[in-house]
Amino acid sequence: xxxxxxTQKKRLLTVSKMVIAQNRELALLIPRSSKGSEWVSRKLISxxxxxxxxxxxxxxxxxxxxxQELFSNSVKHTDSESVNVRCRITDSVLELWFLNVGRGxxxxxxxxxxxxxxxxxxxxxxxxxxxxxxAKTTGYNLYCTISNSHEFSLYSEAAENNFKINAxxxxxxxxxxxxxxxxxxxxxxxxxxxxFYITKTLxxx
Length: 205
Description:
Elements: H1 2-6, H2 9-21, E1 25-31, H3 36-51, H4 57-77, E2 82-90, E3 93-101, E4 110-111, E5 114-115, E6 131-137, E7 139-148, E8 151-159, H5 172-180, E9 183-188, E10 193-201
């Protein structure tokens, strides 16, 4: 399981060398710092560009923003000293894993245009297999589908909302991630290990 062997730095470095040699995967260990966002996005963009020839500039820009939002999320909302990032390309599909250590991701449902205090995993039984509204912006709603006590997926849909630019919702970054991805899944495994898993179809010129 990816999570288990990435939790040890020494093994991560070994795996990184191996998967880079296979020319399809990349694994990185980055200190948890706001300065790491631009660095990791450059590394991944370079890796993708060399291994997926002819990728459209629009796709590269979307991947850059996606990676920066995911890394920013790790910096702000986890207790990790470092962030483990894995990238894999299969045909035209990009897969990204962002592994952290912490208490888990707090879901904050919106209730009557207000946001609740939220809850950490294990998520309440009454929310399992339900779609929970967690963010609103002009044009879109963001929903969280909780599949079990430690896992959820995200999706967004068009909506007519009145939105003030000085009132960005707390989960606005997740809305960006959802809009730029094909699928977004979060999972917390044993201990304090959790990760976001993203898939995105890359387009060509």
